[in-house]
Automatic annotation (TrEMBL):
Domain spans labelled Nudix hydrolase: 2-134
Superkingdom classification of source: Bacteria
Family: Belongs to the Nudix hydrolase family.
PANTHER family: BIS(5'-NUCLEOSYL)-TETRAPHOSPHATASE [ASYMMETRICAL] (PTHR21340:SF0), DIADENOSINE 5,5-P1,P4-TETRAPHOSPHATE PYROPHOSPHOHYDROLASE MUTT (PTHR21340)
Keywords: Hydrolase, Nucleotide-binding
Organism: Hydrogenoanaerobacterium saccharovorans
Name this protein carries in UniProt: Bis(5'-nucleosyl)-tetraphosphatase [asymmetrical]
Length: 158
């Protein structure tokens, strides 16, 4: 069995007090998902994720410490693919899509993003991101330091 490895990120922003997630429509698969790509020789997982996000979207993101999710699937017979995802915040939300691979880019409310993706792995990743961000924003509010744009758990999704 041949093994492949890719890395990517779930990218979020806050806009008008709501958390939004970046979704890409992949040109060849036709499905909505997240920026990701193959690890190049000598790259770390983090380096790959940051590079792929930038190549596919034009965004530079800040990764959230403590979020790393790995999924595995079999895209073709005798090929096992591992994809490691991080969670990253986009300060600048102006995107530029990589036309060779991406047909559309859009920001969607995190609380309803699971409706846009078709694969169970992607739905699970969104749920992990929601839980992570709820804890993060809750801790921030506890310290009397409000989250960006006064985000609260209702805007993340219950």
């Amino acid at each position: 069995m041949r093994k492949e490895k890719s890395c990517g990120a779930l990218v979020y922003r806050t806009k008008n007090g709501e958390v939004e997630l970046l979704l890409l429509k992949h040109r060849f698969g036709g499905h909505w998902s997240f920026p990701k790509g193959h690890v190049e020789e000598g790259e770390t997982e983090v380096e790959t994720a940051l590079r792929e996000v930038h190549e596919e979207t034009g965004l530079t993101i800040q990764l959230e410490e403590g979020f790393r999710q790995s999924v595995e699937y079999y895209p073709r017979p005798n090929i096992r693919k591992q994809v490691v995802y991080f969670l990253g915040y986009a300060d600048d939300d102006r995107t530029r899509r990589q036309e060779e691979e991406i047909s559309e880019i859009r920001w969607v409310p995190l609380k309803s993003a699971h409706r846009e993706v078709i694969f169970r792995n992607d739905k699970n990743l969104i749920n992990h991101a929601k839980k992570f961000l709820r804890r993060k924003f809750f801790r921030r509010n506890e310290r009397k330091n409000p989250a960006p744009a006064q985000t609260d758990s209702r805007t993340i999704g219950e």
